Protein backbone atom coordinates (compact mmCIF):
# COMPACT_ATOMS: atom_id res chain seq x y z
CA UNK A 1 0.00 0.00 0.00
CA UNK A 2 0.64 3.19 -0.09
CA UNK A 3 1.08 5.56 2.88
CA UNK A 4 -1.00 5.16 6.06
CA UNK A 5 -1.27 2.01 8.01
CA UNK A 6 -3.12 -0.47 10.15
CA UNK A 7 -2.82 -0.36 13.90
CA UNK A 8 -2.28 -3.57 15.77
CA UNK A 9 -5.61 -5.25 16.50
CA UNK A 10 -6.41 -8.91 16.95
CA UNK A 11 -9.64 -10.83 16.36
CA UNK A 12 -10.74 -10.45 19.99
CA UNK A 13 -10.31 -6.70 19.79
CA UNK A 14 -12.48 -6.49 16.66
CA UNK A 15 -15.21 -8.50 18.39
CA UNK A 16 -15.04 -6.23 21.43
CA UNK A 17 -15.07 -3.21 19.11
CA UNK A 18 -18.34 -4.36 17.57
CA UNK A 19 -19.93 -4.90 21.00
CA UNK A 20 -18.73 -1.56 22.35
CA UNK A 21 -19.84 0.35 19.25
CA UNK A 22 -23.27 -1.28 19.50
CA UNK A 23 -23.61 -0.16 23.13
CA UNK A 24 -22.05 3.28 22.53
CA UNK A 25 -22.65 4.45 18.92
CA UNK A 26 -20.98 7.76 19.75
CA UNK A 27 -17.58 6.02 19.68
CA UNK A 28 -18.11 4.77 16.14
CA UNK A 29 -19.35 8.20 15.11
CA UNK A 30 -16.07 9.70 16.29
CA UNK A 31 -13.98 7.08 14.51
CA UNK A 32 -15.83 7.13 11.19
CA UNK A 33 -16.06 10.93 11.05
CA UNK A 34 -12.31 11.27 11.56
CA UNK A 35 -11.68 8.25 9.34
CA UNK A 36 -12.98 10.17 6.32
CA UNK A 37 -9.44 11.61 6.31
CA UNK A 38 -8.23 8.14 5.39
CA UNK A 39 -10.85 7.97 2.63
CA UNK A 40 -9.55 11.27 1.24
CA UNK A 41 -6.03 9.93 1.42
CA UNK A 42 -6.95 6.81 -0.54
CA UNK A 43 -9.15 8.61 -3.05
CA UNK A 44 -6.44 11.09 -3.99
CA UNK A 45 -3.78 8.41 -4.51
CA UNK A 46 -6.11 6.43 -6.77
CA UNK A 47 -8.07 9.05 -8.72
CA UNK A 48 -5.09 10.64 -10.49
CA UNK A 49 -4.20 7.36 -12.20
CA UNK A 50 -7.42 7.41 -14.24
CA UNK A 51 -7.73 11.18 -14.56
CA UNK A 52 -4.24 11.37 -16.07
CA UNK A 53 -5.39 9.42 -19.13
CA UNK A 54 -7.94 12.11 -19.97
CA UNK A 55 -5.75 15.04 -18.94
CA UNK A 56 -3.32 13.81 -21.60
CA UNK A 57 -6.13 13.82 -24.15
CA UNK A 58 -7.08 17.44 -23.35
CA UNK A 59 -3.58 18.90 -23.06
CA UNK A 60 -1.10 17.97 -25.78
CA UNK A 61 1.80 19.32 -23.69
CA UNK A 62 0.99 16.76 -20.97
CA UNK A 63 0.70 13.95 -23.51
CA UNK A 64 4.07 14.78 -25.05
CA UNK A 65 6.04 15.55 -21.89
CA UNK A 66 6.64 12.63 -19.56
CA UNK A 67 8.10 14.88 -16.87
CA UNK A 68 4.88 16.91 -16.80
CA UNK A 69 2.79 13.77 -16.25
CA UNK A 70 5.11 12.72 -13.43
CA UNK A 71 4.93 16.20 -11.90
CA UNK A 72 1.12 16.23 -11.93
CA UNK A 73 1.14 12.90 -10.11
CA UNK A 74 3.99 13.49 -7.68
CA UNK A 75 3.30 17.06 -6.56
CA UNK A 76 0.59 15.71 -4.29
CA UNK A 77 3.29 13.63 -2.59
CA UNK A 78 5.53 16.70 -2.27
CA UNK A 79 2.61 18.61 -0.74
CA UNK A 80 1.95 15.71 1.62
CA UNK A 81 5.52 15.80 2.95
CA UNK A 82 5.08 19.48 3.85
CA UNK A 83 1.54 18.88 5.15
CA UNK A 84 2.67 16.07 7.43
CA UNK A 85 5.46 18.25 8.83
CA UNK A 86 3.20 21.25 9.41
CA UNK A 87 0.44 18.99 10.66
CA UNK A 88 2.48 18.06 13.72
CA UNK A 89 2.90 21.71 14.68
CA UNK A 90 -0.79 22.53 14.05
CA UNK A 91 -1.84 19.43 16.00
CA UNK A 92 0.08 20.45 19.07
CA UNK A 93 -0.76 24.15 18.96
CA UNK A 94 -4.38 24.24 17.82
CA UNK A 95 -5.65 20.72 18.49
CA UNK A 96 -6.63 17.63 16.49
CA UNK A 97 -10.11 18.86 15.56
CA UNK A 98 -8.92 22.16 14.08
CA UNK A 99 -6.17 20.30 12.22
CA UNK A 100 -8.75 18.03 10.57
CA UNK A 101 -10.97 21.02 9.71
CA UNK A 102 -7.96 22.82 8.20
CA UNK A 103 -7.03 19.74 6.18
CA UNK A 104 -10.61 19.54 4.86
CA UNK A 105 -10.56 23.18 3.79
CA UNK A 106 -7.21 22.87 2.00
CA UNK A 107 -8.25 19.62 0.31
CA UNK A 108 -11.52 21.16 -0.89
CA UNK A 109 -9.70 24.19 -2.35
CA UNK A 110 -7.30 21.86 -4.14
CA UNK A 111 -10.13 19.78 -5.61
CA UNK A 112 -11.89 22.92 -6.92
CA UNK A 113 -8.66 24.28 -8.44
CA UNK A 114 -8.04 21.00 -10.28
CA UNK A 115 -11.64 20.71 -11.51
CA UNK A 116 -11.62 24.17 -13.15
CA UNK A 117 -7.95 24.15 -14.22
CA UNK A 118 -7.49 25.90 -17.61
CA UNK A 119 -3.88 24.73 -17.96
CA UNK A 120 -1.60 21.93 -16.70
CA UNK A 121 0.28 24.19 -14.29
CA UNK A 122 -2.98 24.98 -12.51
CA UNK A 123 -3.57 21.24 -12.04
CA UNK A 124 -0.11 21.04 -10.47
CA UNK A 125 -1.04 23.84 -8.04
CA UNK A 126 -4.26 22.01 -7.15
CA UNK A 127 -2.31 18.80 -6.59
CA UNK A 128 0.01 20.59 -4.15
CA UNK A 129 -3.00 21.85 -2.17
CA UNK A 130 -4.60 18.40 -2.13
CA UNK A 131 -1.30 16.82 -1.12
CA UNK A 132 -0.94 19.27 1.76
CA UNK A 133 -4.39 18.26 2.98
CA UNK A 134 -3.56 14.57 2.57
CA UNK A 135 -0.34 14.97 4.56
CA UNK A 136 -2.18 16.62 7.44
CA UNK A 137 -4.99 14.06 7.37
CA UNK A 138 -2.59 11.10 7.19
CA UNK A 139 -1.22 11.86 10.64
CA UNK A 140 -4.12 13.69 12.30
CA UNK A 141 -7.02 11.30 11.63
CA UNK A 142 -5.38 8.22 13.22
CA UNK A 143 -4.19 10.39 16.12
CA UNK A 144 -7.68 11.77 16.80
CA UNK A 145 -9.22 8.30 16.62
CA UNK A 146 -6.54 6.86 18.91
CA UNK A 147 -6.94 9.61 21.53
CA UNK A 148 -10.75 9.47 21.45
CA UNK A 149 -11.12 5.69 21.70
CA UNK A 150 -11.31 3.27 24.65
CA UNK A 151 -7.92 1.60 25.06
CA UNK A 152 -9.36 -1.92 24.74
CA UNK A 153 -10.59 -1.30 21.17
CA UNK A 154 -8.17 1.41 20.08
CA UNK A 155 -6.28 -0.75 17.59
CA UNK A 156 -9.46 -1.93 15.89
CA UNK A 157 -10.82 1.61 15.56
CA UNK A 158 -7.55 3.00 14.18
CA UNK A 159 -7.61 0.08 11.74
CA UNK A 160 -10.79 1.53 10.25
CA UNK A 161 -8.69 4.50 9.08
CA UNK A 162 -6.30 2.18 7.23
CA UNK A 163 -9.20 0.24 5.74
CA UNK A 164 -10.79 3.49 4.56
CA UNK A 165 -7.52 4.36 2.77
CA UNK A 166 -7.72 1.25 0.59
CA UNK A 167 -11.49 1.72 0.35
CA UNK A 168 -10.90 5.25 -0.91
CA UNK A 169 -8.57 3.94 -3.58
CA UNK A 170 -11.18 1.43 -4.69
CA UNK A 171 -13.87 4.15 -4.72
CA UNK A 172 -11.66 6.39 -6.86
CA UNK A 173 -11.45 3.72 -9.57
CA UNK A 174 -15.25 3.32 -9.48
CA UNK A 175 -15.69 7.10 -9.83
CA UNK A 176 -13.15 7.19 -12.66
CA UNK A 177 -15.01 4.44 -14.48
CA UNK A 178 -18.36 6.20 -13.94
CA UNK A 179 -17.17 9.40 -15.62
CA UNK A 180 -15.37 7.92 -18.63
CA UNK A 181 -18.26 8.90 -20.92
CA UNK A 182 -19.16 12.17 -19.22
CA UNK A 183 -18.29 15.53 -20.71
CA UNK A 184 -15.34 16.89 -18.80
CA UNK A 185 -14.18 13.39 -17.66
CA UNK A 186 -11.11 14.20 -15.56
CA UNK A 187 -12.62 17.42 -14.19
CA UNK A 188 -15.44 15.41 -12.63
CA UNK A 189 -13.05 12.73 -11.42
CA UNK A 190 -10.90 15.26 -9.58
CA UNK A 191 -13.78 17.56 -8.59
CA UNK A 192 -15.74 14.81 -6.83
CA UNK A 193 -12.86 14.65 -4.36
CA UNK A 194 -14.22 17.92 -2.93
CA UNK A 195 -17.35 16.21 -1.54
CA UNK A 196 -15.85 14.04 1.27
CA UNK A 197 -13.97 16.97 2.92
CA UNK A 198 -17.20 18.97 3.01
CA UNK A 199 -18.98 16.01 4.64
CA UNK A 200 -16.17 15.56 7.17
CA UNK A 201 -16.02 19.30 7.89
CA UNK A 202 -19.74 19.36 8.75
CA UNK A 203 -19.49 16.21 10.88
CA UNK A 204 -16.43 17.39 12.77
CA UNK A 205 -18.07 20.70 13.69
CA UNK A 206 -20.41 18.80 16.00
CA UNK A 207 -17.68 16.60 17.50
CA UNK A 208 -15.38 17.47 20.42
CA UNK A 209 -11.66 18.01 20.58
CA UNK A 210 -9.41 15.12 21.60
CA UNK A 211 -9.67 14.66 25.39
CA UNK A 212 -5.92 14.13 25.61
CA UNK A 213 -5.17 17.46 23.93
CA UNK A 214 -7.72 19.24 26.12
CA UNK A 215 -6.13 17.78 29.25
CA UNK A 216 -2.70 19.01 28.12
CA UNK A 217 -4.20 22.49 27.75
CA UNK A 218 -5.44 22.25 31.36
CA UNK A 219 -9.06 21.98 30.22
CA UNK A 220 -9.66 19.09 32.61
CA UNK A 221 -13.44 19.46 32.93
CA UNK A 222 -13.91 19.44 29.15
CA UNK A 223 -11.72 16.35 28.83
CA UNK A 224 -13.73 14.60 31.53
CA UNK A 225 -17.03 15.47 29.84
CA UNK A 226 -15.87 13.77 26.64
CA UNK A 227 -14.60 10.68 28.48
CA UNK A 228 -18.00 10.38 30.15
CA UNK A 229 -19.54 9.96 26.69
CA UNK A 230 -16.97 7.33 25.70
CA UNK A 231 -16.57 5.21 28.85
CA UNK A 232 -19.09 3.68 31.28
CA UNK A 233 -19.58 5.83 34.39
CA UNK A 234 -17.60 3.44 36.60
CA UNK A 235 -14.52 3.66 34.36
CA UNK A 236 -14.25 7.45 33.94
CA UNK A 237 -12.24 8.12 37.10
CA UNK A 238 -9.82 5.34 36.21
CA UNK A 239 -9.33 6.76 32.71
CA UNK A 240 -8.82 10.28 34.05
CA UNK A 241 -6.07 9.00 36.35
CA UNK A 242 -4.47 7.06 33.48
CA UNK A 243 -4.65 10.15 31.27
CA UNK A 244 -3.05 12.30 33.94
CA UNK A 245 -0.27 9.76 34.52
CA UNK A 246 0.41 9.40 30.79
CA UNK A 247 0.63 13.15 30.19
CA UNK A 248 2.90 13.66 33.18
CA UNK A 249 5.22 10.97 31.79
CA UNK A 250 5.06 12.61 28.38
CA UNK A 251 6.03 16.00 29.80
CA UNK A 252 8.88 14.37 31.72
CA UNK A 253 10.13 12.82 28.50
CA UNK A 254 9.96 16.19 26.75
CA UNK A 255 11.99 17.71 29.55
CA UNK A 256 14.58 14.94 29.17
CA UNK A 257 15.00 15.04 25.38
CA UNK A 258 13.97 18.63 24.64
CA UNK A 259 10.77 20.04 23.21
CA UNK A 260 12.14 21.34 19.90
CA UNK A 261 12.58 19.29 16.75
CA UNK A 262 16.37 19.65 16.53
CA UNK A 263 16.88 18.35 20.06
CA UNK A 264 14.56 15.41 19.47
CA UNK A 265 16.24 14.37 16.20
CA UNK A 266 19.71 14.74 17.70
CA UNK A 267 18.67 12.72 20.73
CA UNK A 268 17.21 9.98 18.54
CA UNK A 269 20.39 9.44 16.54
CA UNK A 270 22.75 9.65 19.50
CA UNK A 271 20.77 7.06 21.46
CA UNK A 272 21.96 3.55 20.50
CA UNK A 273 18.58 1.86 21.04
CA UNK A 274 16.63 4.49 19.10
CA UNK A 275 19.18 4.55 16.30
CA UNK A 276 18.90 0.79 15.86
CA UNK A 277 15.14 1.12 15.97
CA UNK A 278 15.38 3.73 13.22
CA UNK A 279 17.44 1.34 11.09
CA UNK A 280 14.54 -1.10 11.28
CA UNK A 281 11.79 1.51 10.94
CA UNK A 282 13.34 3.38 8.01
CA UNK A 283 14.29 0.11 6.28
CA UNK A 284 10.72 -1.16 6.14
CA UNK A 285 9.32 2.23 5.10
CA UNK A 286 11.79 2.74 2.25
CA UNK A 287 11.44 -0.89 1.13
CA UNK A 288 7.66 -0.45 1.08
CA UNK A 289 7.96 2.25 -1.57
CA UNK A 290 10.83 0.86 -3.64
CA UNK A 291 8.97 -2.33 -4.46
CA UNK A 292 7.18 0.05 -6.83
CA UNK A 293 3.72 -0.15 -5.29
CA UNK A 294 2.80 3.46 -5.97
CA UNK A 295 3.58 3.04 -9.65
CA UNK A 296 0.53 0.75 -9.58
CA UNK A 297 -1.54 3.08 -7.40
CA UNK A 298 -0.69 6.21 -9.44
CA UNK A 299 -0.24 4.72 -12.90
CA UNK A 300 -2.30 1.50 -12.93
CA UNK A 301 -4.36 2.34 -16.07
CA UNK A 302 -1.18 3.44 -17.85
CA UNK A 303 0.51 0.14 -16.93
CA UNK A 304 -2.52 -1.74 -18.23
CA UNK A 305 -2.14 0.20 -21.48
CA UNK A 306 1.53 -0.82 -21.56
CA UNK A 307 0.18 -4.39 -21.49
CA UNK A 308 -1.73 -3.78 -24.72
CA UNK A 309 -5.17 -2.51 -23.67
CA UNK A 310 -5.50 0.79 -25.54
CA UNK A 311 -9.01 1.79 -24.43
CA UNK A 312 -9.08 4.18 -21.46
CA UNK A 313 -12.29 2.65 -20.11
CA UNK A 314 -10.94 -0.91 -20.40
CA UNK A 315 -7.71 0.14 -18.68
CA UNK A 316 -9.72 1.71 -15.85
CA UNK A 317 -11.95 -1.36 -15.49
CA UNK A 318 -8.97 -3.71 -15.24
CA UNK A 319 -7.27 -1.33 -12.79
CA UNK A 320 -10.36 -1.58 -10.59
CA UNK A 321 -9.51 -5.25 -10.06
CA UNK A 322 -6.04 -4.44 -8.70
CA UNK A 323 -7.50 -1.82 -6.34
CA UNK A 324 -10.08 -4.33 -5.07
CA UNK A 325 -7.33 -6.86 -4.43
CA UNK A 326 -5.50 -4.25 -2.36
CA UNK A 327 -8.53 -4.00 -0.07
CA UNK A 328 -8.64 -7.81 0.23
CA UNK A 329 -4.92 -7.93 1.02
CA UNK A 330 -5.34 -5.32 3.75
CA UNK A 331 -8.06 -7.42 5.38
CA UNK A 332 -5.80 -10.48 5.22
CA UNK A 333 -3.12 -8.55 7.09
CA UNK A 334 -5.56 -7.47 9.80
CA UNK A 335 -6.47 -11.15 10.30
CA UNK A 336 -2.99 -12.69 10.33
CA UNK A 337 -0.42 -10.13 11.52
CA UNK A 338 -0.86 -11.06 15.19
CA UNK A 339 -0.96 -14.78 14.41
CA UNK A 340 2.16 -15.15 12.26
CA UNK A 341 4.19 -12.14 13.35
CA UNK A 342 5.53 -9.01 11.71
CA UNK A 343 8.94 -10.25 10.55
CA UNK A 344 7.63 -13.45 8.98
CA UNK A 345 4.82 -11.63 7.18
CA UNK A 346 7.30 -9.02 5.89
CA UNK A 347 9.76 -11.65 4.62
CA UNK A 348 7.14 -13.84 2.94
CA UNK A 349 5.43 -10.82 1.39
CA UNK A 350 8.72 -9.40 0.11
CA UNK A 351 9.87 -12.69 -1.41
CA UNK A 352 6.53 -13.18 -3.19
CA UNK A 353 6.50 -9.56 -4.35
CA UNK A 354 10.00 -9.90 -5.84
CA UNK A 355 8.91 -13.09 -7.62
CA UNK A 356 5.92 -11.39 -9.23
CA UNK A 357 8.00 -8.33 -10.15
CA UNK A 358 10.42 -10.61 -12.01
CA UNK A 359 7.51 -12.41 -13.68
CA UNK A 360 6.00 -9.06 -14.73
CA UNK A 361 9.36 -8.01 -16.11
CA UNK A 362 9.62 -11.18 -18.21
CA UNK A 363 6.07 -10.84 -19.50
CA UNK A 364 6.52 -7.21 -20.56
CA UNK A 365 9.86 -7.97 -22.19
CA UNK A 366 8.29 -10.87 -24.11
CA UNK A 367 5.35 -8.70 -25.09
CA UNK A 368 7.75 -6.07 -26.42
CA UNK A 369 9.78 -8.58 -28.43
CA UNK A 370 6.59 -10.04 -29.97
CA UNK A 371 5.02 -6.69 -30.82
CA UNK A 372 3.27 -6.57 -34.26
CA UNK A 373 5.43 -5.44 -37.17
CA UNK A 374 4.96 -2.17 -38.99
CA UNK A 375 3.64 -2.69 -42.53
CA UNK A 376 4.79 -0.27 -45.21
CA UNK A 377 1.61 -1.02 -47.15
CA UNK A 378 -0.67 -0.38 -44.17
CA UNK A 379 1.21 2.84 -43.38
CA UNK A 380 1.04 4.07 -46.97
CA UNK A 381 -2.77 3.89 -46.91
CA UNK A 382 -2.84 6.97 -44.66
CA UNK A 383 -0.60 9.04 -46.91
CA UNK A 384 2.98 10.21 -46.62
CA UNK A 385 2.08 13.29 -44.55
CA UNK A 386 0.50 11.05 -41.92
CA UNK A 387 3.47 8.71 -41.57
CA UNK A 388 5.71 8.84 -38.51
CA UNK A 389 8.55 11.28 -39.44
CA UNK A 390 11.33 9.00 -38.19
CA UNK A 391 9.89 6.04 -40.11
CA UNK A 392 10.22 8.05 -43.35
CA UNK A 393 13.96 8.49 -42.78
CA UNK A 394 14.69 4.76 -42.53
CA UNK A 395 16.39 2.92 -45.37
CA UNK A 396 15.35 -0.46 -43.98
CA UNK A 397 11.91 -0.59 -42.34
CA UNK A 398 11.65 -4.38 -42.14
CA UNK A 399 12.84 -4.52 -38.54
CA UNK A 400 10.42 -1.93 -37.25
CA UNK A 401 7.67 -3.07 -34.89
CA UNK A 402 4.94 -1.36 -32.92
CA UNK A 403 7.41 -0.79 -30.07
CA UNK A 404 9.88 0.91 -32.44
CA UNK A 405 7.05 3.16 -33.55
CA UNK A 406 6.05 4.14 -30.00
CA UNK A 407 9.68 4.77 -28.98
CA UNK A 408 9.82 7.29 -31.84
CA UNK A 409 6.94 9.19 -30.18
CA UNK A 410 4.50 8.04 -32.84
CA UNK A 411 1.32 5.98 -32.74
CA UNK A 412 0.49 2.49 -34.01
CA UNK A 413 -2.79 2.04 -35.90
CA UNK A 414 -3.56 -1.68 -35.62
CA UNK A 415 -4.53 -3.87 -38.54
CA UNK A 416 -8.30 -3.86 -39.12
CA UNK A 417 -8.41 -7.66 -39.47
CA UNK A 418 -6.40 -8.42 -36.30
CA UNK A 419 -4.48 -6.30 -33.83
CA UNK A 420 -1.67 -8.85 -33.88
CA UNK A 421 -1.02 -8.50 -37.63
CA UNK A 422 1.27 -5.78 -39.08
CA UNK A 423 -0.21 -2.30 -38.81
CA UNK A 424 0.56 1.34 -39.62
CA UNK A 425 3.05 3.67 -37.93
CA UNK A 426 1.58 7.18 -37.90
CA UNK A 427 2.34 10.55 -36.42
CA UNK A 428 0.76 10.81 -32.98
CA UNK A 429 -1.90 13.48 -33.50
CA UNK A 430 -5.55 13.71 -32.47
CA UNK A 431 -6.62 13.96 -36.13
CA UNK A 432 -4.84 10.75 -37.13
CA UNK A 433 -6.09 9.00 -34.00
CA UNK A 434 -9.64 9.88 -35.05
CA UNK A 435 -8.94 8.73 -38.60
CA UNK A 436 -7.66 5.40 -37.32
CA UNK A 437 -10.74 4.94 -35.13
CA UNK A 438 -13.01 5.87 -38.07
CA UNK A 439 -11.66 2.81 -39.92
CA UNK A 440 -12.63 0.63 -36.93
CA UNK A 441 -9.01 0.20 -35.92
CA UNK A 442 -7.38 0.62 -32.51
CA UNK A 443 -4.79 3.35 -32.03
CA UNK A 444 -1.98 2.46 -29.60
CA UNK A 445 0.08 5.20 -27.92
CA UNK A 446 1.48 3.68 -24.71
CA UNK A 447 1.69 -0.04 -25.34
CA UNK A 448 1.36 -2.51 -28.18
CA UNK A 449 -1.18 -5.26 -28.95
CA UNK A 450 -0.02 -8.34 -27.09
CA UNK A 451 -1.20 -11.88 -26.47
CA UNK A 452 0.60 -11.54 -23.12
CA UNK A 453 -1.61 -8.63 -22.03
CA UNK A 454 -4.09 -10.59 -19.94
CA UNK A 455 -1.25 -12.48 -18.23
CA UNK A 456 0.34 -9.15 -17.31
CA UNK A 457 -2.90 -8.00 -15.65
CA UNK A 458 -3.16 -11.30 -13.73
CA UNK A 459 0.42 -10.96 -12.50
CA UNK A 460 -0.27 -7.35 -11.52
CA UNK A 461 -3.14 -8.59 -9.35
CA UNK A 462 -0.96 -11.31 -7.79
CA UNK A 463 1.72 -8.70 -7.11
CA UNK A 464 -0.85 -6.64 -5.17
CA UNK A 465 -2.05 -9.68 -3.23
CA UNK A 466 1.57 -10.51 -2.32
CA UNK A 467 2.34 -6.94 -1.30
CA UNK A 468 -0.72 -5.79 0.65
CA UNK A 469 -0.80 -8.23 3.63
CA UNK A 470 2.88 -7.77 4.50
CA UNK A 471 4.74 -4.88 2.94
CA UNK A 472 1.56 -2.85 2.63
CA UNK A 473 0.62 -2.70 6.31
CA UNK A 474 3.31 -4.20 8.54
CA UNK A 475 5.87 -1.33 8.18
CA UNK A 476 3.46 0.95 10.02
CA UNK A 477 2.93 -1.61 12.76
CA UNK A 478 6.69 -2.12 13.17
CA UNK A 479 7.13 1.64 13.53
CA UNK A 480 4.49 1.76 16.25
CA UNK A 481 6.36 -0.87 18.29
CA UNK A 482 10.08 -0.49 17.62
CA UNK A 483 10.90 2.77 19.46
CA UNK A 484 11.14 3.52 23.21
CA UNK A 485 8.07 5.41 24.43
CA UNK A 486 9.71 8.83 24.77
CA UNK A 487 11.06 8.65 21.18
CA UNK A 488 8.03 7.07 19.55
CA UNK A 489 6.73 10.32 18.06
CA UNK A 490 10.01 11.52 16.59
CA UNK A 491 11.05 8.03 15.47
CA UNK A 492 7.77 7.44 13.69
CA UNK A 493 7.97 10.91 12.16
CA UNK A 494 11.46 10.33 10.74
CA UNK A 495 10.39 6.98 9.30
CA UNK A 496 7.22 8.51 7.81
CA UNK A 497 9.24 11.26 6.10
CA UNK A 498 11.50 8.57 4.62
CA UNK A 499 8.36 6.84 3.32
CA UNK A 500 6.95 9.97 1.70
CA UNK A 501 10.35 10.93 0.26
CA UNK A 502 10.80 7.47 -1.28
CA UNK A 503 7.25 7.71 -2.62
CA UNK A 504 8.15 11.03 -4.26
CA UNK A 505 11.25 9.58 -5.92
CA UNK A 506 9.36 6.58 -7.31
CA UNK A 507 6.33 8.54 -8.57
CA UNK A 508 8.47 11.29 -10.10
CA UNK A 509 10.71 8.89 -12.06
CA UNK A 510 8.49 5.97 -13.10
CA UNK A 511 7.44 7.15 -16.56
CA UNK A 512 10.96 8.36 -17.33
CA UNK A 513 12.30 4.93 -16.38
CA UNK A 514 9.78 3.19 -18.65
CA UNK A 515 10.86 5.45 -21.52
CA UNK A 516 14.49 4.40 -21.12
CA UNK A 517 14.20 0.84 -19.76
CA UNK A 518 10.75 -0.19 -20.95
CA UNK A 519 8.03 -1.48 -18.63
CA UNK A 520 9.85 -4.82 -18.29
CA UNK A 521 13.18 -3.25 -17.45
CA UNK A 522 11.60 -0.94 -14.90
CA UNK A 523 9.87 -3.80 -13.06
CA UNK A 524 13.15 -5.71 -13.08
CA UNK A 525 14.89 -2.68 -11.54
CA UNK A 526 12.28 -2.60 -8.76
CA UNK A 527 12.85 -6.33 -8.22
CA UNK A 528 16.62 -5.79 -7.89
CA UNK A 529 16.13 -2.93 -5.40
CA UNK A 530 13.63 -5.08 -3.51
CA UNK A 531 16.26 -7.80 -3.11
CA UNK A 532 18.43 -5.26 -1.30
CA UNK A 533 15.39 -4.32 0.78
CA UNK A 534 14.78 -7.97 1.64
CA UNK A 535 18.37 -8.36 2.83
CA UNK A 536 18.06 -5.23 4.98
CA UNK A 537 14.78 -6.47 6.50
CA UNK A 538 16.39 -9.81 7.30
CA UNK A 539 19.39 -8.10 8.89
CA UNK A 540 17.86 -5.15 10.75
CA UNK A 541 14.23 -5.93 11.63
CA UNK A 542 13.53 -8.05 14.73
CA UNK A 543 10.24 -9.75 15.53
CA UNK A 544 8.08 -7.58 17.80
CA UNK A 545 4.96 -9.78 17.94
CA UNK A 546 3.70 -10.23 21.49
CA UNK A 547 6.65 -8.37 23.07
CA UNK A 548 6.34 -5.66 25.65
CA UNK A 549 7.97 -2.37 24.66
CA UNK A 550 10.65 -3.00 27.29
CA UNK A 551 11.48 -6.36 25.69
CA UNK A 552 11.86 -4.76 22.25
CA UNK A 553 14.10 -2.12 23.78
CA UNK A 554 16.23 -4.85 25.37
CA UNK A 555 16.69 -6.61 22.00
CA UNK A 556 17.86 -3.38 20.39
CA UNK A 557 20.12 -2.53 23.32
CA UNK A 558 21.92 -5.87 23.07
CA UNK A 559 22.16 -5.62 19.29
CA UNK A 560 19.81 -7.65 17.12
CA UNK A 561 21.40 -10.01 14.61
CA UNK A 562 19.58 -12.84 12.82
CA UNK A 563 21.16 -16.17 12.01
CA UNK A 564 20.75 -18.05 8.74
CA UNK A 565 18.39 -20.55 10.34
CA UNK A 566 15.82 -17.88 11.12
CA UNK A 567 16.64 -17.38 14.76
CA UNK A 568 18.34 -14.40 16.25
CA UNK A 569 21.63 -13.54 17.86
CA UNK A 570 22.21 -10.84 20.39
CA UNK A 571 25.55 -9.13 20.80
CA UNK A 572 25.93 -7.38 24.06
CA UNK A 573 27.41 -3.92 24.23
CA UNK A 574 28.49 -3.88 20.60
CA UNK A 575 27.42 -0.80 18.68
CA UNK A 576 28.27 -2.07 15.21
CA UNK A 577 25.50 -0.34 13.32
From TrEMBL:
Protein name listed in UniProt: Major facilitator superfamily (MFS) profile domain-containing protein
Main location: membrane
Regions crossing the membrane: 30-55, 67-90, 102-122, 128-145, 157-179, 185-207, 278-300, 306-333, 345-365, 452-478, 523-541
Cellular location(s): Membrane
A Pfam entry, by short name: Sugar_tr
Keywords: Membrane, Transmembrane, Transmembrane helix, Transport
Family: Belongs to the major facilitator superfamily. Sugar transporter (TC 2.A.1.1) family.
Ranges where the Major facilitator superfamily (MFS) profile domain occurs: 30-545
InterPro entries documented for this protein: MFS_dom, MFS_sugar_transport-like, MFS_trans_sf, Myo-inositol_Transporter, Sugar/inositol_transpt, Sugar_transporter_CS
Membrane topology: Multi-pass membrane protein
